[in-house]
Amino acid sequence: MPVPSPASRPILSVCLNPVVQKTLVFDRLVKGEVNRARDHRVDASGKGVNVTRVLTETGRAAIHLTQAGGPTREWFLALAAADGIDLRWVESDSEIRFCHTVADLAEGSATELVEEARQVGLGTGERLLAAFRELLASCVALVISGTKAAGFEPDIFPIMTRYAKEAGLLVVLDIKGKDLIDSLKFRPDVIKPNLHELLATWPLQNGGGGGPSAAAADGLPEAAAPGEAALRAHVARIAAELEEGHGSRLVVTRGSRPTWFWDGGELREGPVHLIKPLNPTGSGDAFTAGLTAVLSGGGTMAEAVAEGSRLGALNALCLKPGSIRGARLA
């Protein structure tokens, strides 16, 4: 069988925490009262599903690999199929979790209510890695997103990173903490956390320090929030160490603030689109989709960040999480 050209080969998106996502919209949310939604929807979601759906909506080939089980499995698979997502899965013997987005139109806010995943059954990791290795030869890039459900082997993300790099794929990691630290030795191409995730992995200590060898933390530093200059210097130090020690480029999204990215030995800023968001859930995943698509096609980091910002903004204009369909920027 002929090997597909890089331009036609799909991007493989892996996330080991699938979600059935319910989105509820309220004109005004009043705590402690009965609140009736003006609109609602249910979608297959999770960070990897969101990445894959956005790639698919832009016309790029993409495959999503995850686990599935329990009474919510068929619903989840049907929702993904309705969106045209090429979803591959292995049996997990655990039900897919629910998460909720609560959008308050009066306040202009979207609140996430997140369930923790059930523990997957024995053998799920082995089945997942077998399916993963079968897919590698046909793909051009790998994106690993989010956390993993309990029950998976602790080194499953580093193992995937190693296999993908050995197969010659571009590897983009949107993960944090120990999963990320342990994957660095296999030299992923791009590390793409948001600022909160970066500081949870490499805390800002006494105004600075904390490179890739620093221990992972569970949250932001307890000290007073540092200023912009201190944060930028901290991120620049981490980025320089990542490139020097592991050959990895760092991209840090910051919501409505400019994206920081390491390119050519310096920390640069990528502008973001100023919009009035409807539902920003999945905007970081849409950014990852655009970033990976451009880099896997031979584009520059600046071009990739610009496309990620565009898709992230389009996603925030949609009620559906991890989708850009029908959205337009002014």
Question: What's the helix and strand layout?
Answer:
Blueprint: E1 11-14, E2 19-26, E3 39-45, H1 47-57, E4 62-68, H2 73-82, E5 87-91, E6 97-104, E7 109-114, H3 124-136, E8 141-145, H4 156-166, E9 170-174, H5 177-183, E10 190-191, H6 195-201, H7 228-246, E11 249-254, E12 257-263, E13 266-270, H8 283-296, H9 301-316
Helix pairs in contact: 1-8, 3-4, 4-5, 5-6, 8-9
Q: What does this protein look like?
A:
By secondary structure, the chain is an alpha/beta fold. It is built from 9 helices and 13 strands. Helices cover about 35% and strands about 25% of the residues. The longest helix is centred in the last third of the chain and has 19 residues.
Provide tags for this entry.
9-stranded mixed sheet; alpha/beta; disordered N terminus; 4-stranded mixed sheet; 330 residues; 33% helix
Brief sketch in words of this structure:
By secondary structure, the chain is an alpha/beta fold. 33% of the residues lie in helices and 23% in strands.
Q: How are the strands of the biggest sheet laid out side by side?
A: 5-4-1-8-9-10-11-12-13
Distance between the termini: 46 Å
Q: What would you call the structural class?
A: alpha/beta
Radius of gyration: 19 Å
Helix content: 25-40%
Shape: globular
Mean pLDDT: 91
Order of helices and strands: EEEHEHEEEHEHEHEHHEEEHH
Pick out the low-confidence regions: 1-5, 207-224
Number of helices: 9
Let me know the number of strands. Answer: 13
Largest sheet: 9 strands, mixed
Beta-strand content: 15-25%
